[in-house]
Amino acid sequence: MTEVLDLFEGLNPDQARQFRQEAIARLTELRNEIDNKSERVKMNTEKEKTQRMIEQNLQSYDFLNKGIVKIKDDHRGVLAIIETQRDTYQPDVIVAKIEKEKQNYQGKMQAAHEGIEKRLDELRSLINDRDKKLDLSNPDLNNALELIKLINPGIENIEKNHELAKQINSNFFDQPSRRALLMAYQAQGASTAGLEAQVYNADKTIDNLKKLAYQALIQDGSLNTFANDVSKLAVIEGINIEKMPDQAGFEDAIRAGAGLPAVVPEQK
User: Fold this and answer.
1) Domain ranges across the chain
2) What gap in Å lies between CA 247 and CA 59, rounded to an integer?
């Protein structure tokens, strides 16, 4: 207490009052800085947690797609077995067997589709939560934007600028930050290091994946088309997953294009 009072020694009342006001103002600034830093840390921690959940969601499609491939392979196998029984059973019995198997297959695919739909809804929610606003108080982003302003876009610097942009881009995974970086590169006329391909609209992307999932599982279309598009999104989010899980489906598509019958699964 004595040390604090010593600060006022030699000051007249007006000077002491001004000193006190300045001290209170600076203390308020420091408290705000601490609060803002704590809020940024909290926000970054929440974003990082959400990012991990996004990655886990995308990784789950490898497991889900493998399950769907097994359903498809089992279905092909059962139909192949039924085909070998045409000399044993009457045509109406064969038709009934095929119809029963189709209903069983459709039921399994319907359940798988519901699971995929649920995962896609979760993915949409996670991405939109992560990307709900641009953090203008993020010093890392502000430093990156200032650095971009210093880039010399001359043709002699293309390779160096491309590498610099790659390094900058690798530090930001949310869409608002990537859009801000992209605008800064474009304003500077500098290389974006392919950042355009990493910027997307979450709702449009998920809607397209839902359409492809419906075509693949309910309309018995290509699972590989769905998996390939999920893989593209996964790459943008920093991970790699299988983009062609249904090898038999791929081979069938190639053979169909060449006017050949589908591959008959080996009997076990």
Assistant:
1) 2-45, 46-130+201-257, 139-198
2) 19
